[in-house]
């Protein structure tokens, strides 16, 4: 199982990476929206963990690109943001993100568990 | 402002004078037919010319003078008045009157009037009145001198008093209206600029909150993540006491996280940025979705009583209503747990309907809320029992719940229920019912 973690903050990216690896996942990391789309084109992950506020391409744009492309449409996306207001929630919901979470409400292992449920 | 006001006052002064002269000339014209009247048509013509001169030329001349030589304007005005009145006196022969000294009153009062008008002073009305009285006294003097007929003079003085009273009150009202209008405009300008400032400040505040909550969530996420991973992976061996300490740290971090999320929500609600995506939904489904998100607590059993018969659909925003229910149920669980005293408490969710609403009741076995505090719990950071809410939660949960319910045209109420508390959420029925 492979997860693509799109997160620009190194410490948080490291946290999620460790948690996924500890549960036996392969992890790929992207630090920007543009990088995430490039990586998706190269290999298909089982789940995408997507932050919203990213340099070079907002998370919503990545989500929109993924959900409108038949190739990536079925990849479940977990939106994890530190600034998740109702506007962002509505936007992510509208684009059919599978799960939308605020960073502070979950632990890294909660995130892995959520990813596991989505890929079952 | 100062100049506009001075101009306006000059205009009023001119009107007062115009009135006075019109009155005098008209008066002279009428009494010209009176037997023994010594003044001829020259007086009448002079008066008429002067009367026309005031509105047509005098005002313009004085306005121009006021603009370039404001101090000179008053002096010139007075001098002209003095000269003109003197001409009248000479033409009518009033200087032979024993009451000639009264002539000085209108001059004095007129000067005072102009000075008064030059300033922002409410007493100018009194001066106007006095001036008119002076003018009348002068008229009386003229008439007595010319006609030696005091009776006629007094009759006419009565009429002049009446007219003077009316004119004064009209002028007074004009002044009042003008002042009121000016003040209303100024107040409006002030209010508008204050509102603009507030709007800017509010936007700034909301931006700040959005950025601040984002920045705050990073360290919270890291602290929470690292702590949970360390404890989860058993890296740290904990004694009972240490476990207690770490639980306190976890609770505090969780509370901080909840606070950050709720503050962001409140700022969005305050800024009117929360948009609704409403539709017809079965409330029961929404409750089930909310229940999935409630963290299990061994001290509390959550009972979801199925409705006795199928419920009609309600008009609501599914995601935001789930959040509302989550907050209300979480609140019920929290207080039931704290009040359990070792026994397992119960939170029960029940349904009922009214003509226009579907009601969801969330009943807890918590300590209950005193009647006087029930309204307060929906306020931000309500502190009905500080120690209680400080343990967990942000103090904003019920405020958010109330605000979102209000947005979706529903309501939330609180009441006592078997020693505990009952929260009732009213959801409006969707159009078309089922």
Overall description:
The complex is a heterodimer of chains A (120) and B (434). With 120 residues, chain A is of the alpha/beta class. Chain A has one domain: 3-Layer(aba) Sandwich (Rossmann fold). Helix content of chain A is 45%, strand content 19%. Chain A has helices at 10-22, 33-42, 59-68, 86-94, 108-119, and strands at residues 2-6, 26-30, 47-50, 77-81, 99-102. In chain A, strands 2-1-3-4-5 form a 5-stranded parallel β-sheet, with helices on both faces. In chain A, helix 3 links the parallel strand 3 (47-50) and strand 4. In chain A, helix 2 (33-42) packs parallel to helix 3 (59-68). Chain A is globular, with a radius of gyration of 13 Å. Chain B is an alpha+beta fold. Among the domains of chain B are: 2-148, no CATH class; 278-428, Heat Shock Protein 90, CATH 3.30.565. In chain B, 65% of the residues lie in helices and 10% in strands. Chain B has 11 helices and 7 strands. In chain B, the strands form 2 sheets. A 5-stranded mixed β-sheet of chain B has the order 2-4-5-7-6. A two-stranded antiparallel sheet of chain B has the order 1-3. The longest helix of chain B has 83 residues, at 150-232. In chain B, 31% of the residues are buried. Residues 35-39 and 149-159 of chain B have low confidence and may be disordered. Chains A and B meet through helix 1 and helix 4 of A and helix 6 and helix 7 of B.
């Amino acid at each position: 199982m492979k997860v693509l973690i799109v997160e620009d903050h190194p410490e948080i990216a490291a946290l999620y990476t460790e948690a996924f690896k500890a549960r036996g996942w392969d992890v790929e990391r992207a630090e920007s929206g543009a990088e995430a789309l490039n990586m998706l084109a190269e290999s298909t992950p089982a789940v995408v963990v997507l932050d919203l506020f990213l340099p070079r391409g907002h998370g919503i744009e990545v989500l929109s690109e993924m959900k409108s492309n038949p190739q990536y449409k079925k990849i479940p996306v977990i939106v994890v943001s530190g600034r998740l207001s109702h506007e962002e929630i509505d936007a992510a919901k509208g684009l059919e993100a599978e799960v939308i979470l605020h960073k502070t409400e979950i632990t890294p292992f909660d995130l892995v568990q959520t990813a596991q449920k989505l890929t079952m | 402002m100062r100049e506009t006001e001075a101009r306006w006052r000059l205009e009023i002064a001119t009107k007062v004078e115009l009135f006075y002269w019109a009155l005098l000339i008209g008066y002279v014209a009428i009494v010209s037919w009176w037997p023994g009247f010594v003044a001829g048509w020259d007086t009448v013509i002079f008066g008429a010319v002067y009367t026309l001169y005031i509105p047509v030329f005098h005002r313009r001349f004085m306005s121009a003078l006021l603009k370039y030589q404001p101090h000179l304007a008053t002096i010139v005005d007075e001098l002209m008045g003095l000269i003109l009145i003197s001409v009248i006196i000479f033409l009518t022969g009033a200087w032979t009157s024993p009451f000639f000294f009264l002539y000085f009153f209108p001059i004095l009062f007129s000067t005072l009037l102009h000075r008064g008008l030059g300033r922002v002073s409410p007493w100018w009305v009194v001066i106007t009145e006095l001036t008119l009285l002076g003018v009348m006294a002068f008229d009386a003097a003229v008439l007595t001198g010319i006609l030696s007929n005091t009776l006629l003079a007094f009759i006419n003085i009565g009429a002049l008093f009446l007219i003077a009273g009316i004119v004064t009150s009209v002028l007074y009202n004009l002044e009042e209206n003008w002042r009121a209008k000016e003040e209303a405009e100024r107040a409006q300008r002030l209010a508008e600029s204050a509102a603009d400032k507030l709007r800017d400040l509010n936007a700034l505040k909301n931006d700040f909150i959005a950025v601040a909550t984002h920045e705050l969530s990073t360290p919270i996420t890291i602290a929470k993540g690292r702590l949970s991973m360390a404890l989860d992976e058993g890296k740290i061996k904990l004694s009972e006491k240490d476990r207690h300490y770490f639980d306190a740290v976890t609770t505090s971090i969780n509370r901080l996280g909840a606070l950050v999320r709720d503050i962001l929500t409140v700022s969005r609600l305050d800024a009117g940025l929360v948009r609704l995506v409403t539709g017809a939904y079965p409330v029961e489904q929404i409750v089930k979705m909310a229940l999935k998100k409630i963290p299990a607590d061994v001290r509390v059993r959550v009972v979801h009583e199925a409705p006795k018969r199928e419920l009609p659909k309600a008009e609501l925003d599914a995601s935001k209503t789930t959040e509302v229910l989550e907050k209300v149920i979480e609140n019920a669980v929290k207080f039931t747990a704290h009040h359990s005293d070792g026994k397992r408490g119960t939170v029960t969710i029940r349904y009922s309907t009214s003509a226009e609403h579907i009601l969801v009741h969330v009943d807890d076995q918590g300590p209950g809320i005193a009647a006087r505090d029930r309204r307060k719990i929906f306020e931000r950071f309500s502190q009905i029992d500080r120690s209680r809410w400080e343990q967990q939660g942000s103090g904003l949960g019920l405020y958010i719940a109330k605000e979102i319910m209000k947005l979706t045209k529903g309501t939330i109420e609180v009441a006592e229920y078997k020693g505990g508390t009952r929260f009732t959420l009213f959801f409006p029925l969707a159009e078309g019912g089922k």
